[in-house]
Amino acid sequence: MVDVELSSVGKSWGAVQVIRNLDIHVKDEEFLVLLGPSGCGKTTTMRMIAGLEDVTSGDIRIGGQSVVGKLARERDIAMVFQNYGLYPHMSVADNIGYPLRLRKVQVDERRERVKSAARKVHLEDLLERKPRALSGGQRQRVALARAIVRTPRLFMLDEPLSNLDAKLRVSMRAELKHLHHEMRTTTIYVTHDQIEAMTLATRVAVMHGGRIVQLDTPENIYKDPSELFVAAFIGSPPMNLLRGTMSIGAFRGAGFEIASLPASLGGSVTLGIRPDDVALVPGPDGADIVATVFATEFVGQSTLVSIKAGDDLFCAVADANRKVTIGETVFLKLDRSRIFFFDTANDKRLRPA
């Protein structure tokens, strides 16, 4: 069994603290995704686990053994990077087999293990080609095969799909999902792409400002965000966020009032609701917001309808067959059971009594 445990891990460069008291326990065979915007500390966290960066404080244990102070090559970790890291003068087979060559594995065994790894990522017909003759998706599969061939105890992937086009990202996500199911190797994956995180992960660690703001399953991250940053970062289209005040069961925002809300909440509040939970209704009866359409976006199976709420855009998802035009008056009703509340002062989730 190979689990990974970070205990009170911190990282500083001089007076600048980039990672703050990080505690994570990655379970054996888990696929954990570190998700967050650029600069949040996710890649630094991965590099500390891999031994490519030293920790400033705390402890990292892999398989129950502390690895602080150990070199990267002593940790039995395979990494896949954003830029593939292939040797242009080597064939695909030689690129895949290079880690085995360094370990002086016999030629016959090396050849068989290269073929086996290539089969897992569907490269068996490309083994004699050079990287320049491959597409971006094929190069990424070579990098994956090179990681697989070592049969490491831990996989680490740093933004591996960010250089691929949208169609290739979809197919490569499926490849990675199937590969993890097949190999059952503990995996830590870094990305800023929430779709990758939500589709691949067993659990997601949402990072912001050098700390983990929520660590949970993709479903719980989406349905039960712990604070405003998570609510705003997760979801496409993003959650609607309206600033206002609560008093006696009513939320008052910029030019509108939403009634029949929990009376236990009061003061400055940010109201959040996902566009999927905002319905267009035929008329003003029962509507929470009456406004003119600011913009529309046809996205295939639905149409996104945006209005202006003060300085903010507020979005609803309408059926694709519903014809809506800019400047038209629309009537919006919010699903009360799907409304979230956040404290405007500290962004923490407010849960009505």
Automatic annotation (TrEMBL):
Q: Which domain of life is it from?
A: Bacteria
Give one Pfam hit by family name: ABC_tran
| Keyword entries, A-Z | ATP-binding, Cell membrane, Membrane, Nucleotide-binding, Translocase, Transport
Q: How does it sit in the membrane?
A: Peripheral membrane protein
**Subcellular compartments:** Cell inner membrane
Can you give the residue ranges of the ABC transporter domain? 4-234
UniProt name for this protein:
ABC transporter ATP-binding protein
Q: Organism, per UniProt?
A: Mesorhizobium hungaricum
